[in-house]
C-alpha cells in the first residue's frame, strides 16, 4: 500500500498547505490528491469570460508541486478510515497517511428554483473543462441573466460585456448589489460603474422560475415579468464541500464546514487538519463562526495548517475578511467591519472619511480619486474596518488597513502612520486618506 | 500688536501643523507666516520638468488654510523674542504668540566646488518663481549634467528626458545611484531603467570644477575629463533651515536641526515646537539622530506637533523612513532598514525574498513583476525593513511593510498576514510576495 507522511486532499489551498508543509518539514513525504486535472485560480474565474480569454490562462501551475517534491495523484478520495489512517480513492487505490489535510473547497449553491437544471443555466463550478464549455456557449448568446449580485455576479457581469455586445442583466434580491460586503455609498458607486459598462441591474428582485424547454429561454421574476435569457449564470454563493469529511465522521460546524481550532486541527481527529472553504471560519473580532470564503483566507489558513502538522503552534487569529474587486476599471475594497455591520451589531462607532487623488499633484497621469472610510470603536478608538474605492493602488491600500486592523491600532496611532508617498504612486503626504480619515475620527473619539 | 494663539513659520509641514492644531484646538487662533507666495509640493518638484509641465501644476492649495480659518501672512520672520513671545518679520510687523511652530524646512546643499555659482548651475530650491526660471532655461539646453544620484537626481534625470531629446548625464560619487537608500540589486535595476530612458550614468565619479565664463559650459571631473554642459542640476541633498532658530537661541542637534523631544517640543523652550526638515529626526529603531528628510515624515511630525501644542501627549515613535520613487515607469520603494544598513550595523539578519506578478493570472493587463526583499532580525524574527520594485501598486505595498515594521511583526506573524487579493489589483494569494518572503525567512530564523 502506498504510504505518505502527509496526504492533502484538494486544490488551491491544498497546494499552499503542501508547500507550507514542505518548507517546515523538509523530510516528510507529501502527496496531493485531487479530482481536477488542472487547478484554476478561483478569483480569476470571472476573468476567463473577458480579460484573459479562457481557462487555460487562469491555472495554478503544477510546476510548484514538482519543484517542491510534492507528489500529485489525480483522483478522488471517497473514504477515510481514521483508525487505520487510510484514504481510499475512487479507483480503489489506498493511501496510508500520518497527517491528513482537507482542502476540498466549496461547491456552488444551486438554489431550489423550478427549472434550475435546464441547459445553459450555469453555476460557477471551479472546473477547467466545465468553464471552457460555459465560455464556448457564450459565443452564441444574446441575452445573459446573472442571478446574484455578489462579487462573483458583478465580476461576471462586467466581464461578459467585454468584447461582446450582448444584453447582460444582473438580478439581485437585496436593495443593492454587493450589499452583504459593502456600505450603501460604495454599492451605489459600483452599480453606477456597472451601468456605465452596459450592465442592466435589477435590485429588490426575486427569481421565481427558469423558463424554457430543454434549454433556458427566460427568467421569470416574482412579479411575473419574464426576462429573455439564452444563458443564466448563478452567482448565489457556495457551500463547504464536506461530504467526505462528514462520511469520515468529522464534526461539522457552521454551514456544515469542518470544525477546526486555531491550529486548523479538526475538532474530531488530531491527525486531520482542514483549511480553506471547507474549514469553519471564525471572526477575528468576536470569534464567532462567519460564512466568509476568500482565496486569500484559504491560503493563509493553508500556510498555518501546513506549518502545524507535526508541531501545532501557529495560531490562526481569525478572519479579518479583506477583499477587493475591480468593476469597470474602478477598484472597490473592504477590510473588516463595515458601517452596516457595525450598526447591525449595535456597536458604538465613529466614522472617519477622506478622499484624495491617488497621485499628486493631480496632473500626474492615471489619477483616480481614492475614497477611504474607516470605522473605529467609539469607546476605545480601535479600528474595526475600512472601505476604499479608487484606482489600481486601492488593492494594496486595503492591505495597509488590514495590517492596522490586525494590530488593533487606534485612530490616534493611525493619525501618525508613517507612509511613504510619491507623486506617481500615492496620494500626497498632506492628503493621504488613511491618515486623514483617522485624524478626523480622533476628535470624535476624544470628545465623547 | 497682532496676537495669535499659535504662530507657524513655514511651508508644507507648516500647513499640516496648522490643520492639526485647528482640528485639535478649534478655539485657538492660528497664523501661518511664510516667505513663499505659493507652497510647492516638494516631492513633485522633479515632475515640474516633465510630467506635469510647470510649477503652477504642483502647488499645495491655500484653500485649505482659508477653509480652516488659518490666517496666512506672506512675510519672513527674522527674529524671535522668546521671553516676550514675540516674532518680528522683515517688514517690522510684530506678532505675539502663545505657541510657536518652526516648520522652516531645508535648503539645498551647495557644494564648495570651484565655479558652483556660475549661471545655469541650479540647486533645487523649493521656490515657485525660481523653478519656473529653471524650467524656462531648460528649453534651450542641449547638455544637462546632474550632480548627485540620490532620489532628486534620478528623478530629475528621468524627467529631463521626457519630451526633450537632450543629453542627460548623471554623475554620482558612490559606486551606485541611490546607494544611500537601496541595496545593490535594486540600484542596478534602477540604473538599468535610467539607461533605457536615455540617461547616461557615471558612478564613482567626483566633480572637480564647474567650467565656463559667466555661464556654465562644462563640468570637469576628478580625472580631468570635461563633460559638456549648458545646465547643471545639483541633487546633493539638503540641510535644515535653522538660521532663525539658532538666532533665537534654540538648541540645535545633528546637522544643526532643531533639537526636539518625542512630543516635537523643542529642548530649549516649551512654547516652541518644530517639525519637518528643520527638526531633528531620530530613528524608530535605535533612537539615534538620523539625516532623513521626507515630506511624509514632515507631515507626520506636523500632525503630532499640532496636536501637542496645548497638551503634549502624542508621541513620535521615530522615523521608520519609508519612501518610494518611479524611474522610467518602474516603482522602487524602501521601508526601514536595508540589507546594506543591517550589515553596516553588524546586525545578525535573515533575508526573505519573493517575486511575483502583481496581477494574477499573469495574462491580466498592466502586469509587472514585483520583487520583495525583507530583512528580519535573526534572533527575534522581527522585521527590520523591506525593499520593493514593481508596478504602480508597489507604492502602497511598501506601506503595508511600514505598518508591519511599526508593529514589530515577526516573520512568523507576517507569514500569516491576511491580505486581500484580486486578479486585476494584486499578486495571487498563493504568490503574495510579502507573505512568501516571510515564509522563507521563518525557517532560517527557526533553525539557528
Can you walk me through this structure?
Two copies of one chain form a homodimer. Chain A is an alpha/beta fold. Chain A folds into three domains: 175 residues, FAD/NAD(P)-binding domain (3-Layer(bba) Sandwich), CATH 3.50.50.60; 127 residues, FAD/NAD(P)-binding domain, CATH 3.50.50.60; 116 residues, Enolase-like, domain 1 (2-Layer Sandwich). Helices cover 24% and strands 29% of the residues of chain A. Chain A contains eleven helices and 26 strands. In chain A, the strands form seven sheets. In chain A, strands 1, 2, 5, 6, 7, 8 and 19 form a seven-stranded mixed β-sheet that branches. In chain A, strands 10-17-11-12-13 form a five-stranded parallel β-sheet. In chain A, helix 1 packs parallel to helix 7. The first copy, chain A, is globular, with a radius of gyration of 23 Å. At the A-B interface, helix 1, strand 4, helix 7, strand 22 and strand 23 of A face helix 1, strand 4, helix 7, strand 22 and strand 23 of B.
